[in-house]
Amino acid sequence: MKILVTAKEKRLLDHYYKLMNDTSLPLSQRRVAKIRFDNLYNEAKLRACNTDTTLYG
To answer: Of 57, 56, 10, 55, whose CA–CA distance to 37 is shortest?
Structure first.
């Protein structure tokens, strides 16, 4: 599913995604990146639903 995000959110989501897939990092850091990614994604998704912004997939 695609959602509308700001440029800053996109930059952060891309950064966290890269961290999650970086096997050279400890598992704990990758888990933290996943938690932050999920929180940011869900926040943007919820905002889109609450402001009648069209979600497109």
So the answer is: 10
pLDDT, tens digit, for every residue of 40-52? Answer: 999 988 887 766 5
Structure tokens at 48: 């889109």
Task: Give the length of the chain.
Answer: 57
Instruction: Give me the half-sphere count of Cα atoms (radius 13 Å) on the Cβ side of residue 3.
Output: 18
CA distance 35 to 57: 23
Query: CA 12 to CA 31: how far, in whole Å?
Result: 15
- ∠ CA 15-54-1 to the nearest 5 degrees? 45
Q: What is the pTM of this model?
A: 0.80
Residue 33 banded pLDDT, cuts 50, 70, 90? very high
